[in-house]
Amino acid sequence: MSYSAEQNLSVLYQEMDWLQSVVAQVICNYLKQEGHENHWFEITPPLVEREQSAYSDLVLEWELNTFERLALALAMAPAIKPEVLDILFGVNQLIDRGFSEFGGVTDKAFGGFLPTAQTLYFLIAANDPLWRVQVDLLLSNRHKFMAEQVTELMPADASLPHCAGVYKITEHWLTYLLTGTHTAPEHSTSFPAHALETPHRWQDLVLDYSVMKRVEEIRAWLDYGHILMSDWQLDKKVKPGYRAVFYGPSGTGKTMTAALLAKETGREIYRVDLSMIVSKYIGETEKNLSRVFEVASYKDWILFFDEADSLFGKRTATSSSNDRHANQLTGYLLQRIEDFPGTVILATNLRANMDDAFTRRFQNMVQFTIPGPSERLQLWQNAFAHVCELNEDINLARIAQDFELAGGQIINILRQCALLAIRRNERVIYLDDLLESIRQEFQKDNKTINITGMEYS
């Protein structure tokens, strides 16, 4: 349900007023000021009702407790009503400086108090030390706030304690609470993955029969795997999850197939960006990857690793620190993949580059090949359908027979032909357009074709 900005802000401001009262009471208790005999937990959070705002619906749907609401309110305060945290700028009269136990940082571009994990520890556990376990849970990757990427704990400098990191709400959840509109998780170094989508349908998938048979095995697991693991008790005999490798030349449908498997089984699929996960600090890389796996496990995503041989290829002797680091990362990632309860698909152009010891751990190895003449004809027909008109001098069956092209290459040719047609202010594709576009596509691979005198009508 959609809500107006006024509805969403009204409820969020009430939550900010409650947070301000809680912060004041915690400080009062901690410093033994007048009124310290009261307890912040007795300050009742605002009553929320269903269909009141995006935040209200979240509280009720997730059944958030008081600790969770306090943590969420603290995380979004700098963005919603920063002045409610100004009291935390208080000065310790004994040392004439701020209270280190309050945590928090400031920034030149932002005059307010930015809460850290230490701030959350202070508010919840300063007067009740045993409640630290509540904060530990809130900051854990297993908690729904972290798993759903509602809140995040920014990495602190390597020389600082872990709790010195800024605790904040993520941008896409802040947008949702303000507007009621969900956006995809942010693609960043701390979350090196992005959603993979396709406009195609399952019937658009043109693969050799033997390849499609292997792909259907993966689809069957996605449809019935949970029944096999729980009802058939297969979980007592095999590791959870399903792991597959797609290998073959570029343009043969590896990425499209992965995206369609997700689309057809009602799942989301996220492509892990291998170029963003390698940090010079192995611990930081593991942390970034861990976050992706935790979220994917919680939300039942499919994880897709493209160009996987860059990490899982055959290894040479570890002659440098970079080699050792790469081996460490590969070992860590392989272990996470093996322990992942969902579906992982790795794609590579060259099967020979993959380490045999690694691939043996996978349930399915699917070889994507250059399509044969009958598949190519279907790809040509699918490509031009509802886009351009083919002139009567074009014999697609002959084109499909004579030119060995992958589906991705055929789409590139379609694009080039369409550009030629639109420049003439028409939608008709002529034989010369098609042959010239085919020639250009072959030239990308330093291949030449001689079409002089050949008949395609």
TrEMBL record:
A Pfam family that the UniProt record links to this protein: AAA
SMART domains, per the entry: AAA
Residue ranges of every copy of the AAA+ ATPase domain listed in the record: 240-372
GO molecular function, one term: ATP hydrolysis activity
Keyword DNA-binding listed: no
TM helices/strands, residue ranges: none
Top-level taxon of the source organism: Bacteria
CDD domains associated with the record: RecA-like_protease
Family: Belongs to the AAA ATPase family.
Protein name: ATP-binding protein
Source organism: Pseudoalteromonas caenipelagi
